[in-house]
Structures are given as structure tokens and as C-alpha cells.
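Figure 2 data, in text form.
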Amino acid sequence: MKPGMRVGILGAGQLARMIALAGYPLGLEFIFLDPSADACANKLGEHLHGDYSDPGLLAQLAERADVVTYEFENVPADVAGFLSAHTQVYPSPKALAIAQDRLIEKKFFHDIDIPTPAYAALDSLEHLELVMPAIGYPAILKSRTQGYDGKGQSVLKSADDLSAAWNILEGAPAIVEAFVPFKREVSIIAARSVSGAVVFYPLSENCHRGGILRVSESKEQDPMQQQAETYASRLMAALDYVGVLALELFDVDGQLIANEFAPRVHNSGHWTIEGAETSQFENHLRAILDLPLGSTAAIGKAAMVNFIGGLPDTKQVLTIPGAHLHLYDKAPRKGRKVAHATIRAETATQLSTQVEKLAALASQVNDS
């Protein structure tokens, strides 16, 4: 790696911020393209302020970045495709395009033998009514695109819910998925380098509320680790993937069912910043620059608690042994991730106690 390499990032939110923070010790420089004037990563590098499809800004980014990545999957896939014709872009535009559309994603999972909930593509309310006897209740109606943190989703408990849920989508392409009676939600964070080296982090066990991740806990030696790694390996091989990837899964009595994948660093992997030998953010940079991947071994027991909508009292968080607070420099707003804390402990019992303390602080500021 040559000195002063510049990494371009599409998006300048908290994930881009954490990528940059992980990259400075490696001597990297950063340039961000983001439409928001006050994007929270823009203090950590040059900020190209404008739309993702602005041809002038894209030309600047392609010319000045040695490699380009992105922090979230709602960046237009054709933008990534344009950039890939002029510079290296990882993960690939293909991975981005698949992750952006829930129907295409589900079909791709099936093509590579990764099980999913039963689903159906929809184009009208009448079509939804027609497929529900086969899908069954409860079910979840989802927009095919632009969905994250519970947005664009409605729970269907009976036929009485169909019309109102369909109207919320305002004609957007949609799918309906059967509800999975899962025991828990988990995710596997993996990294694959340009040379094809692959590493996996210990499974994360996740707790969501209102469609937003609230707590993730590292689970070393989890009985589902190997199955999750098999699915993630299959996914990365099929995509010739480069970078960090998160695969979200439902644990249904010892069988993992895929929910979705994110072609990027992921909220459920934030515990790796203090809880692993090498964070997901550093390994993402190592992967896209084809550097040796770092150890993913956990350091003790680790977890992460999100702060949604409001900020905790810094002193109260840092009073908790093993806690590390990460503020995103974002104004508090309903439903917005504004900070997280990681927690590390020697034993599972200690970790559980510390997570409860953090969760109590989160409940004072989080949206209900």
C-alpha cells in the first residue's frame, strides 16, 4: 500500500465516520460524497457536497480516490456502476443492486440454496389478497426498495389489515413474507479481501424493537456459527465479494433462515470496535485495499447498545465498567441513531449486568 492512499466513500454518516476513524492509524485519507451539508463524517476528510448522481462530483471522486466504497445500500447502483468504470469500487455494484431490492435478494438466496421465509411479489391490493391464503397470518408487507430500520414495513395480522397496509406503500413495488416463528435474531459479519481471503466474526445475537436494532451481543462458540459461516461463504463466493458483509438470520429451532444481507459494515458489528482484535471497520479497509485481514477473535465478552433519538448522559455511561461511548455528532431526532456504547466484560454474567445498565440508560432517551 502506497503512503497517503485516499479512500472515497459514498455517504458520510456514522458508518463512514467509523470507517475513517479506523483508517487514520493506517495512514489513509478520505473523501466523502454526501448530499447533506452537515453529514457527521465530513470533519474527517474532504466533503463533496451534492447529489450522489452529480456527474461533476462523481468525476472528482473517481479521479481522486484510489478506491471507492459505500456506507449504506441506498446509494443508486448505477452510480456505483459508473464509478467502477473509472476506479476500483468495493463491494461490487452487483452486490449493491441485489441488496437494494428485496425480491431480487430473495431470489438470489434461493439460487444459492440459502433458505428464506415464504414470500410473494405483489403489484396490487388484489394480488395481495390472492396470495395471503398461501402465505398465512401473521405476515409482513414490505416495500421492495428503500427499506431500513423498519421503514416501509407493515405487520399483517388478519385480512382486515390488508387495505390500510397496502395504502401506506402508495403503490411502491412490494413483497409479502410469511412470519417466521424465530427463537432469536442473529447476524454473521464476514470480510473477504481482493485476494479472496475470508474471515468471520463470532455470531451476533440481536434484539430489535420497532424495526430498529437496540442491542447486539457477541456469541463466541455459538452452535449456529458454522451454519452461518457456510451461508455467508456461499453468498460471498457467488458475488465475488470484497469488503465486509453482514448476513441477518432467524434462528428457528436450530435452522437458520435468511432475512437479508447488507453489503457494508453493519450496526450489529459495532461491538467489534472494542470487543475484537480487529474491528469490522478496519477489516473492511484491509479487505478493499487487499491488505492482510486482521484477527476477528473476541476480546472477552462484548455487546453493543444503541441510543435512538436522544443522547445519554456521558458520565453515567462511562461510570459503567467496560463501557465505551461513541457519539456520532448528529442532532437528536425521533428514530435516529445518534450514538452507541460498547461494553466488554470477563464473564457472560458480568456482561449481562452491564448491558442491563446500558439498556436502562438507553430507555431514558430512546424512542419508545
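Caption note: The chain has a mean pLDDT of 94.
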